[in-house]
Design brief:
homotetramer; six-stranded parallel β-sheet; three-stranded antiparallel β-sheet; 14 helices; globular
Chain lengths: ~350, ~350, ~350, ~350
C-alpha cells in the first residue's frame, strides 16, 4: 500500500475568490430573465441591492456552513469593507476555525471527498467534504483562544465582546491583515456567535475555565441575544442575508419576537434572502422557508427569496454584481458596535 | 374572502406515537435483507442494539429539528424510561418550545404546508412545515422560563443546570407528567442545550436579565462543553444516536477532541448513527458524513451508519424494535447527572 | 492488495419483503396523527385505500428507479395478485433487468455503496447504490430477449405486446413462478414500458434487428401511448400510484391530454400518489409536484399526495396496511389486457 | 377574488442566455481554487475542455429536465454551432415541447412556483416550476407533428430520422431560425429521443396512427439504440456531457455494452460530466454517480465529474468559458448524421 506524506496531501491551497476582480453584472442581468435557480439568484441579488439602497435598513449577514473554508472568506470581508453589512451572526466554526485560523497565517487545502478517512486521521488531517485542514495548526488556534481568555477580566461575556477582543489581538498579531474578525472590528461591525463554544473556541475556553476554576471568562449567549435585539430595536428597517441556516438564521430572525417580549413593537425583517441546499421537508429551521417564517411574524412577505444552491457557486456572482453597481458607496455607516462601548 | 377562526384551524392535535404499542420487529428484520434506505435503517437499528448490549457504553442521544413537535416526543421519553439513553444533547427548541411547552398542557396541531402564512400570522399561529402552534401559548412558555430564572441564585449556569431546575419545577407544576425534561430529571439523565438561548428560553432569559441588570442568571455554554466532556472522559465507550445534525451533533462529537485538549486521551465515539435528510455536499456539519468525522478523530469507522430519511418515518420503527427486543432491561444505569451534584 | 473473489462478493442475497407477513396497520394509524413524512405516508395510504374502494377506478401503478432490485419486487407482485393494480407503467430496467432477470432464477446481492468500482468492474459485477448484480447473468437475460424476438412475427409491437409474449414464455420456462411479468400476464394486467429499449431488452432487440435487417420486430412506443390512452378513455375514474418519476410518471399522466387530442373529453386522474426523493426545484418531470400537474390538466387537486422518501422505507408499510384492511377482496377485476386481444 | 386574464399572466418572456455575450473565464479560473460545487464546476469545465481538445473524441450531449424552457436553449444551440457537440440525446419534451415549440415562434413565460394551479388550469396555462406555457400554443405543436408524420412514407423510423424530418420542415417553415433542431440538422449533428412519444410528439403521432390504422409512421427506439451504438463503434474516444439524468443518460451510457453485445469491444466513455440535483441515494439511474457507472463498464474513472447543482445556475458559466477559450475553432467536424444517409 502506497504511503502518503502529509506534505504531499496538504499542497494545493484553497484561494478565496475576489469579487472585485470578476464582474458578474451581465450574468446576473441575463439570469433575471431565465428560470429556476438562475432567476432565483437574480431576484435574491436584487433584494440585496434593495437593502443597500434603503437608507434606513440595517443589513444582517448570517453565515452557517463552511463557505469560508471553501473560498468565500474574502467575499464576506469585501462585503464589510464595502459597507454592505452592518451585523454578522455566524457559527463559531466560521469565525474561529476558519477566519481566526487563517488570520494566523494557516491555510485550507484542496482535497477530495472520496478518500480514505482513516489515512487522513493517521496524518492528523481534518476533512470538510473536499477540503483539508492541518489539525496541528488548528490546535494552535485553540491555545490562542485560551491565552486571550486568560488575559481578560473574569466575568460573563457576550460572544460579540469576546470576538471584539480577538479583533483587538489580531490588530497586533495577525499574519493575514484582512481577516473577517479584524476587518469587522476596525469597521465597528459587531459579530455574534450564538453557539460560540461549539467550535475551536470551545476547546480553548474549557481549558481556560479548568485552569481558573473560581474566576473565569464565561460566554453568555443570553447577552448576545439581548445585544442583537437592541440593534433590531434601534433599526428602522432590517434585512437578512443568510448563507445556510442553523442557529445564526434562527437567532437573527428571533430578534423580532424578542423585541416584542421586551415590550417594543418592531417591524418584521423587511428583506430576507437565504442561500441553502437544505431540504424544506424535514421541519428543521435550517431548511424552513421564508414563507414559513412569515407565520411566526419574523419575516415580511414581499422582499424574500430562497436560493436553493450550494453557496460557493452563486454567492460570488451575487456580491460581484452588487459591488460593481456601486450603490454601497452612498450608503451610511451604522457602526453598531459603537452602541456597546 | 372566507374568514378563518383560530379554533377552526387549531383543532386536530398531533399525537405522539407509542413505540410500545406498535411492534416493528418483523419489519426491521425484513429490511435487513433489502437495499437502500430500508437496509440502512436496519443496520442503524442493529448498531443501536449493539450500544445497548455493550455494558461499557454511554449512549448519547442528540436531537435537532422538530421531530418532537411532529409526533416523536414520546419516543424520546420512552427511550429514557427504558434506559436506552444516558445523555441528551438537543436544540433549545426541542427542549423548551416543544417539550416544556407540552408539559404545560399545550399541544401541537396538524396543519398544512400549503397555506397562506399571512392568514396564520393574523391569527397568531406559528407553522413548522405542516404543524401549527398557538403563539399565545408559546408566550406563556417564555414567561415561565423568566420566573424560573428569577427564582435562582444569580450566577452562570450550564444549560444542563438550568434544565435540571426546569425538571424540578415541572415535578410540582406540570400538566403532562411524562415530559422529556421531567422524565430525564427523574432518571438522572442530563440534558444539554449548547445553544440554549436560541429558543423560547432566550426570550424569557433576556427579560430576566433586563429586569435584573446587575445580578442575574447567565447561561455559559463553555460550562456545558466541559460537563459533557467530563462524561466522555468517565465513559469507557460512547455511542451517538443522532436525530438531525446541527449544533447538538457537532457538540457531542467534539468531546473527543476536548478531552484531548484537557490532556486525557479518550477513544473516538465507538458507535454512531445519524438520521438526516441533509445534503452531504454543502460542507455543513449537519450533513457531513460519519466517515468525514473519522478524519477528525471523532467517530470510529466500524459501527457507523447514516440513514437518509426524514426521522418521523423511520425512528419509531427503529426504537420499537429495540424496545421489543428487551435487551435494555439488563442494562446498567449510568445516571450521569449525579456526578454534578 | 487483497484480491477479491466474485463468490465472496456475491454472497448475501437481497430478499423481497412479504407485506402479508408483516402487519403495519397500527403504524399507519399512528402516523396519521403525526407530522412531516410520517403523516404524508398515512395520507397517501388513505388515498390508495380510496382508490381501492372506488368501484369505478382503474388503478395505474408506475415504477421508476430500482426498488424492484432492492427488495420490493414481491410488493408489486402481491399488489397484482390482490387486485390492487389494473395497469403497470414501468421502466425497462424494472421489467427486464430486474423482474425477468429474477424470473430466470438469478438474484440481486447485498453490497456496499462505498466500494472500489474498478474492482467490481474487474469481476463483472454491476452496482446499483448498495446492490450488486452479476453481469454475466444479465447477459443471459439479453440473449433470451433476442430469442423471444426471433420467434415472433416481424412487425411493430407495443411494449405491452412484447411483454405479454415474455409472460407467455415465462409460463413455460421461468425458474421463479411469481415474477411480476408472469403474474400480470396471468391476471390480465397490462404492463407498458414506454422506453423499452432503454434496458437489457434493448441489447437483445438490437441484436435481433442486426441479424434480421429486413424483416424484424420493432417496438413502437406510439402504439403504447394509444393503448394506454384507450384504457384511460374506457375508465370512469383513474388513480395513479407512482413509485419515483421518470418516463412512466409522465406517460401515465399524459393520457388525459392524449384522450382530449383524440376528441374525447376525459376527467383528470382523480387520485394521485407519488413516492420520491427527487428535488422539486429543478423543473424536471420526475420531481414536479402533483399540484404542478394540475395546471396541465392531468391530475385533480383533491386526492393527491407526494411522499418525499426513498420508497423501500415506506412502500411496504403502505401496502401491508392496504393488504390487511382487505377492501381489495371486494374489488372487481378490470382485466384491461383483454381489450387488446 | 381578483380575476386574472391570460394576457396578464403570460407577459414576461423567458429569454435565453447568450454565452457569447457574457465572459465567465475569470470566474471559472477562480472557482478552480475554491471548494464544494464551485470547484466541481471548474473541474467539469476542464473535462469538457479536454474533450474539445481530444481530436479523436465524439462529444455526446444528453439533456433531461426543462433547462431549455428555462433560458438555456441558446446555450445548446451555440454548442452545436461552435462544434462543441457531435450527438444529442434528449427527452422528447426538450426537443418537441420546448425547441420545436419555440421554432414556431411561441415563447415560455416567467411565472411563479407559488400559485393557484387551478386558476392556471382555468386559463389553459401549463406550469413548469416557475415557468408558464400557453397550452393552446402547445396543441398547435402537436398538430404539426401529425402533419409531418402524415407526409412521410409509412414505416418504422428511429426518432433521429423523424427529428431530421422536423429539421427539414423547419428550414422552410420556422419563425425562429436557430432552433436546436434546425441548427443540428444543418450541422449534421444527429438528435436522438429514446422516449420520443413521451412528449407533445406522442399526441401528434397517436392522432396520425389513429387516422391511418393500417399503414403509418411508427417510432422504433430499438433502431435509435442501434444507430447511436454505431456512432459509438465508429468513434475512437467518446465523452458524455450530461444535463440531468433520465433515459438520455442511461441510453448514451449503454452504447458501450450494446457494442459488446454486437461483438465489438469498444472502450468505455473516456470523459463524463453530469450536472444534476438528483439524490444519489435512491438507486435511480438519474442520480447514480459516474463512479457507479464504472462498475457497469460504461464510464472510465479518470475524467469524470458530478456537479450537484441546478443546471441553469452553472451551465452558462461552463459553456461561456469553453466558448471564450476558442479551442473548438480547431476541432474537426464529425457530422455523424451523414453516416445514415
Amino acid at each position: 500500500m502506497k504511503r502518503f506524506d502529509k506534505k504531499d496531501i496538504l499542497k494545493d491551497i484553497v484561494k478565496h475568490i475576489d469579487i472585485k476582480a470578476i464582474d458578474s453584472t451581465k450574468i446576473i442581468d441575463a439570469m433575471r430573465d431565465m428560470s429556476f435557480t438562475s432567476r432565483d439568484t437574480a431576484i435574491a441579488t436584487d433584494i440585496l441591492q434593495n437593502m443597500i439602497k434603503d437608507k434606513d435598513c440595517t443589513i444582517i449577514l448570517t453565515i452557517a456552513g463552511s463557505t469560508s473554508a471553501a473560498g468565500c472568506m474574502q467575499v464576506y470581508v469585501d462585503m464589510v469593507k464595502s459597507n454592505m453589512v452592518d451585523v454578522i451572526v455566524a457559527t463559531g466554526a466560521t469565525i474561529v476555525d476558519m477566519d481566526f485560523f487563517e488570520a494566523l497565517g494557516f491555510k485550507h487545502y484542496k482535497g477530495s471527498s472520496n478518500v480514505d478517512d482513516t489515512m487522513l486521521r493517521d496524518n492528523y488531517i481534518d476533512r470538510i467534504y473536499d477540503t483539508y485542514i492541518d489539525e496541528e495548526e488548528l490546535q494552535i488556534c485553540d491555545k490562542l483562544i485560551k491565552l486571550i481568555a486568560d488575559s481578560l477580566e473574569p466575568r460573563p461575556y457576550s460572544s460579540r465582546e469576546f470576538i471584539m477582543e480577538m479583533g483587538k489581538w489580531l490588530v497586533k498579531n495577525s499574519k493575514k491583515n484582512d481577516s473577517l474578525i479584524q476587518t469587522a472590528y476596525e469597521c465597528d461591525v459587531p459579530i455574534f456567535c450564538p453557539a460560540f463554544s461549539d467550535s475551536s473556541a470551545g476547546f480553548g475556553l474549557v481549558l481556560h475555565q479548568v485552569e481558573h476554576p473560581d474566576k473565569h471568562v464565561s460566554i453568555d449567549s443570553v447577552k448576545d441575544f439581548y445585544e442583537l435585539t437592541q440593534i433590531k430595536m434601534k433599526s428602522k428597517n432590517t434585512g437578512l442575508f443568510m448563507i445556510g441556516g442553523g442557529v445564526p438564521k434562527n437567532f437573527a430572525q428571533d430578534t423580532v419576537i424578542c423585541a416584542e417580549v421586551l415590550g417594543k413593537n418592531v417591524p418584521m425583517h423587511k428583506y430576507a434572502v437565504q442561500i441553502t441546499v437544505a431540504d424544506v421537508r424535514d421541519g428543521a429551521c435550517s431548511s424552513s422557508t421564508l414563507k414559513e417564517a412569515t407565520s411566526w411574524g419574523k419575516v415580511d412577505t414581499i422582499f424574500q427569496q430562497m436560493v436553493f444552491a450550494e453557496a460557493t457557486s452563486v454567492l460570488p456572482l451575487m456580491i460581484s454584481y452588487i459591488y460593481h453597481k456601486e450603490d454601497w458607496k452612498n450608503r451610511q455607516k451604522f457602526e453598531w458596535a459603537k452602541i456597546f462601548k
